[in-house]
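Example with several molecule types.
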Amino acid sequence: MGAVGLVALRELIERGRSKAFLIANVVIVLAIALGVLASQLLGDPGPTRLAVADEEADALARVLEQQLAVVGGAPVEVLEAADAGAAEALVREGEADLALVGDGEVLADGGVPRALEPLLGLAAQSLALQDAVADLGVPSYLQPRLLEGSLTVTNVGEDDEAPDEASALVAFGAVVALYALLIIYGQWVAQGIVEEKQSRVVEVVVSTVTPTQLLAGKVLGIGLLGLFQVLLIAGAGVAGLLAATDVAPPAGLGGVVALVLAWYVLGYALYAMLFAATGAVVSRVEDLQSAATPVIVVILAAFFASQFALQDPASTAAEVMALVPLTAPLVQPIRGAAGLGSPLEVLAGVALALAALGLLLPVVARVYAGAVLRTRGRLSLREAYRSGSDAPSG
Amino acid sequence: MLELSALGRRYGDVVALDGLSFAVEPGQVHGFVGANGAGKTTAMRIVMGVERADAGSVRWRGAPIDAAARRRFGYMPEERGLYPKMPCARQLAYLARLHGMPKAVARERAGAWLARFGLAERAGDKVEDLSLGNQQRIQLAAALVHEPDLLVLDEPFSGLDPIGTDVMVEVLLEQAGRGVPVLFSSHQLELVERVCDAVAIIDAGRLVAHGAVESLRRGDGPDLVRVDVDASAPSWWQGLPGVGLHRAEDGRVLLELGPEADPDAVLDAARAAGSVRHFGLVERSLAERYREVVGDPREAVGQGR
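Resulting structure tokens for the full complex:
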């Protein structure tokens, strides 16, 4: 095994065995499982049961049923009761949620669900309107046409369909996970570098491997741990989404997951380089927080950009941010989940990210080489870059 | 053989090394002494490739040092350091593998060195949980675990207790015994004198004395003879060929005997002058020799007054 592989393996084993990593994995799986469970218990109350006392109430319930089907609300189940008393009894016994007892009177135990209240009003209005039209003597065959409103939707945007709720949920979850993992694993890189400097072990290691090999192995090993966690989140998340009955898994879920994985790899590589440079120039872990702040601010800005893109994935700003290397990792999954990112856009984003990485790599390697053996005080990036030119090659 | 030739290194206006040249032979325990800041650490770091030379070169077995050759070196830096949270055995095996050993051999050697230092039962403990003395043993094991071709140790004796010092001496001699050149720096001149075959003394980045310990102690100057004679004439030695006064010491004299001087003639002259209480060749210690070639900074202050 080469030097890079050995260094990466050490990071994998030593950090993979750490309590922090093990606990994080357990917490992630538990959190997703709890989320699914909670959505089952709280998010899916089942159909609203309506007890109807007479024909008029039944007609109202049918109109309500149609309206609910149109707006996509939870369905209603109609229970026929003999009279108003029987309907009221059903509500009292908890057999029905609401009772419609004629003359627009609604009996409830604890109030009408908020989403249902305006619809009930509309249904009553609609029924009253039907009666009024019938009373005006309009022939029955014309009545439906009179009442039928007409609404034609014309899509003036370029996009075929608006994102549905489930894909927005997937996009949001993916971006939050990516954001957290980029920060956590990026900081592990910076921290690992500083710890090696602070403990002085780096001089022993750099006398056998080159600084570039040490850096590459560290970034690779920590990145693989992060990748494991991304896969865990993606696996548990998709399983949870499939298990949840109230949210239909969006079409193209596999593509979104692939996009998230790809952008974790690229995003991690980019941000790990920035974190590595900040870790290399300080000598004590205590100094790392302030040194890493600019990088964290950049990730935070990218996260806000992604939240903006989540509100309006089709906007020009989102299109641009999907291409900018530091925002693309968090914005492309959102556009992908919204069914917007064309293959060309994905390829262009990847190409730009790779190009940025190609520019960043030699600079960071040189900063690292110049700073890694300066175990006292703090260097500026410029100083580190300068002394990197005459650093030993190992 | 390790050869340092005309090494130069500057840090801004500070000259750390100024044309430093010397060689360490196979199987030689080679001391490296000099004041703080004389350039010892810089020279050793250049040998280990963690510092660049502005001028000159280092050659190993007659060739410039490449990464493969350097991987076979063992190094103990001035500032000790290991992964504090990594268990001893895994850490040593990891370092052995970085030095190019196969996995199984690396594990076996790590275990063997832990056993050698009586730390077998601490194999699974984190380094930070060990006492300072045991941490230093692990540090030494880290320099030795891959059975290096060359050992470069920066102040290996600093901070060691007497037992630790004995173990270190034993290991250095043992390594030299298997033909490994051992270069180490130290301020403990008595120890250097006792352990080393050869010594390089540097001052302000330049080599001021170098050679076998025996010849270095004698120096290339005249032999010194201390004579205590109850003489009426204090200058009884004057006129003897090749003899001069090194220092008068309260009734006794320390005479310098040049190459043409005849010690027997000096003794005869002393007996002729009076009753001789003491006549003997003065063995100079490395420490005395060191003060001669480097100069005592306190004397330098005295001269300035």
